[in-house]
Amino acid sequence: MTKTITKIDLDEQQLIAKKTRVAAYCRVSTSSAEQLISLDAQRAHYEQYIRSNPEWEFVGVYYDEGISGTKKKDRFGLLNLIRDSEIGKIDLILTKSISRFSRSTTDCLDMVRKLMNLGVRVLFEKENIDTGSMESELMLSILSSLAEDESHSISQNIRWSVQKKFQDGTYQTSVPAYGYRNKDGKMVLIPEQAEVIKRIFEDSVNGKSTCQIAKELNTENTPTQRGGKWHSTTVNSIIRNETYTGDALFQKTYTDDNFNRHSNTGEKNMYIVENHHEAIVSKEIFELANRELERRAAEKGHEAGNDSYGNRYSFSGKIYCKECGSKLKRMKHAMPEPGIILWSCKGHLADKTACSLKAIKDEELKTAFITMLNKLRFAKDQILYPLLKSLQGFDSQENLIRIDEITERLEKNLEQQQTLAGLVSDGIIEPALMTKLRNELLQEQTKLEKQKAELSESMVGNRSQIDELKKLISYLTSSNTLEEFSDDLFDTFGEKIIAISRSEVEFELKCGLKLKEGL
């Protein structure tokens, strides 16, 4: 009898153990530079963590920035995660905690049930819950409810503490108004800024508009609180701020139960503390300046000479003379070429001996900018991509992971502070003991924040440049040879122009590139 052997061909891939396809989800609630660096750190941590497991296949890190955990409909990163789970790309999802996933019990349970029906597990690291091994939803339901309540309890504890400080006049704003700084728990004057405040009130009383005041401050290069430009709205808000009379008005805004901030128009109590700090102007001057604002508003409805007037041309305020440092002013040529637009050096106009640069033609500047962009378009592989790679190199994985670790420790520190506030409000511990423990936590918080700031500081600027450079590369890659100048084009990519001579300028782009071009 002859034996028959049947050969069965197996797909080679079936002989290899299937890896678990793993994704991660992370979220930060604000879009500040610090929070975005923290988000990068979380993403770096998860990518390294997933790739280091030989049984896992890295799918990606899904994230939302500047989004509250209470508002699911706006969380596009989370929605994309659910969508990719539905089409079978994911087996396991990692996330730090239930509160990062969702603060709403209903949303959290709905999403988990949906994912479990799709065969997708969710691992909540902080609570050590793996939905794949759960026999019941009870524990998840309890913890999810706690996550939802956490937003309210944290808010209530903070409100209790803040309200008490409002009432006894000891509340201290984290960012005092221009003219003041915090020192030893009190608001103290910054002398040079206080002089600017006095001048603003005096100018207003003497009939100058907020636009005129802002323009003069900018002309004199008077620094603002954040190093930017003075605007009529900034001057207006200073004149209307009772802080400068030495009084403090607390709870001008409030947060509702859905975590939305509103102006307080009578919904909540306000607290005024007279002689809270040293005044910069008298109450009489304050009232006179505000009456002048109201008079102008009644006459005109709004300020006619607003900030957009001085910046209606894309080059306005952005061209500087290399020789004397002055800005160039837009002018129409009368002779010998009537109607020709020129940019003339203010330094030369004021004193012909101070600077040799007379003027450059507007049309030549525009042509030079388009020429420079076209050169970049053809040389992007040699210039732009290497620059992008270089900038991205600063965002080292090691630093990002270290930032993530510090952020975790800061979150635990904050939780402990909030717990203390709750214990005091419930009368469980004495205020004196709470003060001692809170001071210890604050010392640790200061140390951790300093470490995090040092790591983040070098990365924030690079992040902005990276974003601008990516935008420029994307535009040049998708566009044909540029033939016409547009204001939008310069506003999008141009930062400023240095007029080297009447035949050469240097364009500084928002991505940090500085390129010379002939006129």
Automatic annotation (TrEMBL):
It comes from Ileibacterium valens. This is Recombinase family protein. SMART domains: Resolvase (SM00857). GO terms for molecular function: DNA binding; DNA strand exchange activity. SUPFAM superfamilies: Resolvase-like. Residues 177-299 form the Recombinase domain. It comes from the Bacteria. Residues 21-169 form the Resolvase/invertase-type recombinase catalytic domain.
